[in-house]
Design a protein that fits this description.
The structure is a single chain. With 303 residues, this protein is of the alpha+beta class. Helix content is 39%, strand content 22%. Strand 8 and strand 9 form a beta hairpin.
Length: 303
């Protein structure tokens, strides 16, 4: 198996159960509280950006405020925990789950995994040339290029780049070899897939990584991706990584806020309301909206 590294894990949090909305600095210190004493001392050196982001670079913790749709859905904070953080707490997922329980709701919104291979620079140049000819998004110049595959709005997003170019010690390439990194960014991840097998089973990240690598390799005429990032081993696939809705998104409060205009339109038209209630088979969204209607929208709006 490849040595795939879990690079970052991003978690969305609701407000604190007892303290309500607190500062990002307070959230950062909640996660720093389970670090060993040696690491906790470094948390005094906190970097901030515009007062909305707090991070401890040495321990791999970063906390920022949510915005847009995520905030509308009740997710107040975005917490990013790097591999350095998990190793510092010896991958103590139970301690993290306990901390998450202090908030009204939580979900894993993103998982980043990566692996680095040492390859001949000519192989890298050939791959970049092929990617450019295929119309992929390629940035940079000469041997410092980065190839992007997919969209950040999709569930999978891939970035392949020359890691050696970031370190003058290894660039220009010694003996014609360079370190190439393939990073995989995954959105909408089921919590149980990450907080259980990902940090307890060393093969989990490798399997998940290789599954996507093989999808990328299909459209790689050069064979570069398959040769350098696929171990070739056979294993049972991880069937799904698409997350279900977080607890907060299952609540009547969320449904009412998200679909208030549509619900109001139904309430203002008896004809529409009757037709809606007459549907025998409803999807899950429809059932939740109908539950609000049946429980009395007018009373709910007075709260």
């Amino acid at each position: 198996m490849l040595k795939t590294k879990i690079d970052y894990l991003t978690i969305s949090l609701g407000q604190h159960k007892t303290k309500g909305v607190i500062s990002t600095f307070d959230v950062l210190n909640i996660f720093a509280s389970i670090l060993p004493e040696t690491f906790r001392k470094t948390c005094r050196d906190v970097l901030s950006s515009a007062g909305t982001t707090n991070r401890v670079v040495q321990c791999g913790i970063s906390v920022s405020l949510q915005y847009g749709t995520a905030l509308q859905r009740g997710w107040v904070y975005s917490v990013q925990l790097s591999g350095d953080y998990w190793h510092a707490i010896e991958r103590n997922k139970d301690a993290v789950i306990h901390l998450l329980g202090e908030f009204e709701g939580w979900r894993i919104s993103r998982l980043d995994i990566e692996s680095t291979a040492v390859v001949p620079i000519e192989d890298w140049r050939g791959f970049c040339k092929s990617a450019f000819e295929k119309g992929l998004f390629v940035t940079g110049k000469e041997d410092e290029r980065t190839v992007y595959i997919g969209s950040r709005k999709s569930q999978f997003y891939t970035r392949i780049y020359n890691k050696s170019a970031e370190n003058p010690k290894y660039f220009p390439a010694p003996d014609g070899m360079v370190q190439i990194r393939l990073e995989l960014e995954i959105h909408r991840v089921k919590e149980e897939l990450v907080l259980q097998p990902a940090f307890l089973n060393s093969q989990f990240a490798d399997r998940l990584y290789i599954q996507k690598v093989r999808c990328v390799a299909i459209n790689d005429d050069t064979g570069f991706v398959q040769e350098h990032f696929d171990s070739g081993e056979k294993f049972e696939k991880i069937k799904t990584i698409k997350r279900t809705l977080g607890d907060m998104e299952k609540t009547v409060d969320y449904i009412f806020k998200a679909y208030a205009p549509y619900i109001s339109a139904v309430m203002n038209s008896q004809l529409v309301a009757d037709r809606y209630k007459g549907i025998e088979v409803l999807d899950e969204k429809g059932k939740k909206v109908l539950a609000i209607l049946d429980n009395g929208l007018e009373d709910y709006m007075k709260k």
